[in-house]
Amino acid sequence: MKIERIETLVCHARMRNWIFVKVITDQPGLFGWGEATLEWHTRSVVGAIEDLAPLLIGEDPTRVEYLWQVMWRQHFWHGSGLVRSTAIAGIDLALWDILGKVHGVPCHKLWGGPVRDSIRLYGHLGGGNLESFYETPVENANRFAELAQQAVADGFTAFKAMAVPPTMPIEGLQPIKAADACVRAMRDAVGDHIDIMVDCHARPSPAMGLQFAKVLDPYGLFFLEEPCWPESLDGLAAINAAVATPIATGERLTHLAAFRDLFARRGCEVCQLDITHCGGFTEARRIAALAEAHRIALAPHNPQGPVSTAASLEFGFSQPSYVICESVHNDVPWRDDIVEEGFTVDASTRTVLPNNRPGLGISINESEVKKHPFQQEVLECVFYCDGSVGDW
């Protein structure tokens, strides 16, 4: 059995273009699906996959670790860059999908079988722009409260919101009070039995991130995500040590060594590796083992398409430290037309039961994908009041 060709299918889905990767073998009907979605870098990732393909054509697709090493280490430049690690991830997921199909088992059974009976999902409420936080602060807080109540009505027992405004490296009380008002409104709206997560989106400096973390600490957040740039390891460690709220980060880290440094500094209590960016299952399993050694929880970043979700769930059923999965359920109304999924979701509790189909347990409707061709994503930009460039 050999790899015959590798194809990419791009599907525009409102905020992002999903990049599906199809690895096709010379065995009739045997292929695997992966995903390599990377917002605002669609053309780059598709090109990177095309560059990697010649390394794999004619190879045995079941030699997954070997092929991962080939993609990561060959042609001089290692695969730690975001675009290349995302391309590698898309192919790697498809190879594991093939391996599961060859053996007739879900991917999680390739790694020792399920370690849990179900996985809890959390919803994402989105966030406000800079102007809404400051020009209409009461209305903004009320909007977060309404979104929180809607998430609970939809069955979620946990949700995340971007309730922290962009800030310059140092600012006064206004943004701190704005974030406090939004989180207080959400907590008052849903009570203490619902878990709330707040995503800072790596907008603050370490100094501002520490202030946000301290003012939000009394609300008992499930975690506070990316309170400063992921490169600021000392800042993350200082914030993590200063508050009771668990600090989460990792979606922008792309390889094992970066997580090694993060964990060694104790920069987080929740690891948010993104399986579609950090090199796929092959590297994610190494990162998960390292997290387990440090007793750090796993809550993967997963705002992408349906293959990414299937992969995150397969991963979750195999990993002891996995605590919750990010869920996108209302991004586009035709999502279910694109994919048939092997796992089942209990809509009343937003929990997932294991997939029993081989591999990732999904099938992609290619004719439906073609109805939504590539479109340039909306260019999301943030500028501070003085015109300087901020972090989106």
Structural description of this entry:
With 392 residues, the protein is of the alpha/beta class. The chain folds into two domains: 3-105, Enolase-like, domain 1; 110-359, Enolase-like C-terminal domain (TIM Barrel). The chain has 14 helices and 15 strands. The chain has helices spanning 42-56, 64-73, 82-103, 107-110, 130-135, 137-153, 173-190, 206-216, 233-242, 256-264, 280-293, 306-316, 335-338, 366-369, and strands at 3-13, 16-25, 31-35, 119-127, 158-162, 195-199, 223-225, 247-249, 270-271, 297-298, 325-326, 339-340, 344-346, 351-353, 363-364. Strands 4, 5, 6, 7, 8, 9, 10, 11, 13 and 14 form a ten-stranded mixed sheet that branches. Strand 5 (158-162), helix 7 (173-190) and strand 6 (195-199) form a beta-alpha-beta unit. Helix 1 packs across helix 3 (82-103) and helix 8 (206-216) packs parallel to helix 9 (233-242). The longest helix is centred in the first third of the chain and has 22 residues, at 82-103. The protein is globular, with a radius of gyration of 21 Å. The termini are far apart. The relative contact order is 0.15.
Order of helices and strands: EEEHHHHEHHEHEHEHEHEHEHEHEEEEH
> Rounded to an integer, what's the Rg over CA atoms?
21 Å
Helicity range of the residues?
A: 25-40%
- Tally the helices: what do you get? 14
Q: Overall mean pLDDT score?
A: 95
Number of domains: 2
Query: What is the CATH topology of the largest domain?
Result: TIM Barrel
